[in-house]
Backbone:
C-alpha cells in the first residue's frame, strides 16, 4: 500500500525532531507500505468498483471492496512493532480537572433558562483507541485506522485532541484513505478530501497542547484492475459476514459504467 501524504495539523520542533516521533512514524509508515492484497500478493492490488443489477432485483448496485480486513491487516503488522490494539482511553482524572476548573472560574455548563449549573455527572465515555504504540524513549502515540464514515473521522479527531490535552499521549495519528481509494471502498468510509475543510479547526484545537503532534496519514492502493468476479474483492466484514459477502449473485447483470453518476455516492444512495 502507498502512504501518499502525511499532514501534521499540529506539532512542535521539539516533538518533530525527537527520536521517539521519528521512529514511531517509521514504524507506522513501514507497516502501511508492507500491506498487500491479496494476502499472498506482492502489492496492494484491488478490483475497480463496478455497477450491477440482478434479474430478480433491477435496482442498480455497486460492488466495492470491504474495509474491515484492511484494518485487520494493519493490526497484524503493527503487532510486529509491539503495538497494542483496542487501547482504553482513561480520561476520568482529566474530566474531574475540567469540572473543578469550571467551578473555580465560574464557567460551568448551565441549564437554560434557569441558569443553574449542571450538577449531574455527564457521560464521559469516548471509547478505546484502535492502536497504542510506546517507543523505547517513552514517546506515546495513539492511532486510529478509519473504517467508518466521515462522522467517525470527526469523533476520532475529537478523541485524539482530548488525549493530547490530558497528556495521555505525545502524538495522535488518524489513517484515512485518499479520495481515489475511497471510491472503491464500501460503507461511505471517511476520506481525506471530506476532512480537509476542518484541518485548520483541528489545528487550532490540538495546538492548545503545545508539546504534541496531531497527524493525518493518507493511504492508497498500489494498483486497480478490472474484475466482475465477486471473490476478487476484499470482503465487507470478517468471519460469517465475509463468507456471505463472497457469494456472487447467479443472475448478476453488469451495467455499463456510464449508467448513473459513477462518482457520486449521493446518487447511489438515492437509487
Residues:
Amino acid at each position: 500500500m502507498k502512504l501518499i501524504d502525511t499532514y501534521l495539523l499540529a506539532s512542535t520542533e521539539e516533538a518533530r525532531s525527537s527520536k521517539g516521533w521519528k521512529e514511531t512514524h517509521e514504524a507506522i509508515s513501514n507497516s502501511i507500505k508492507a500491506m498487500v492484497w491479496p494476502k499472498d500478493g506482492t502489492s496492494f492490488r484491488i478490483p475497480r468498483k463496478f455497477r450491477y443489477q440482478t434479474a430478480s432485483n433491477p435496482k442498480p448496485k455497486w460492488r466495492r471492496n470491504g474495509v474491515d480486513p484492511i484494518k485487520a491487516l494493519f493490526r497484524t503488522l503493527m503487532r510486529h512493532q509491539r503495538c497494542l490494539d483496542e487501547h482504553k482511553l482513561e480520561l476520568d482524572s482529566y474530566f474531574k480537572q475540567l469540572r473543578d476548573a469550571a467551578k473555580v472560574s465560574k464557567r460551568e455548563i448551565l441549564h437554560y433558562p434557569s441558569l443553574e449549573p449542571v450538577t449531574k455527572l455527564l457521560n464521559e465515555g469516548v471509547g478505546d483507541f484502535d492502536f497504542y504504540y510506546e517507543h523505547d524513549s517513552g514517546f506515546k502515540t495513539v492511532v486510529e485506522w478509519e473504517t467508518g464514515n466521515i462522522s467517525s473521522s470527526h469523533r476520532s479527531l475529537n478523541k485524539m485532541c482530548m488525549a493530547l490535552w490530558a497528556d495521555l499521549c505525545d502524538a495522535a495519528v488518524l489513517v484515512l484513505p485518499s479520495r481515489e481509494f475511497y471510491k472503491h471502498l464500501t460503507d461511505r468510509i471517511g476520506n481525506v478530501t471530506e476532512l480537509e475543510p476542518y484541518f485548520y479547526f483541528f489545528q487550532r484545537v490540538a495546538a492548545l497542547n503545545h508539546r504534541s503532534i496531531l497527524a493525518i496519514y493518507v493511504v492508497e492502493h498500489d494498483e486497480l484492475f478490472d474484475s466482475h468476479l465477486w471473490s476478487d474483492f476484499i470482503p465487507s466484514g470478517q468471519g460469517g459476514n465475509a463468507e456471505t459477502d463472497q457469494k456472487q449473485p447467479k443472475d448478476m447483470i453488469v451495467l455499463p459504467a456510464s449508467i448513473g453518476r459513477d462518482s457520486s455516492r449521493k446518487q447511489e444512495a438515492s437509487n
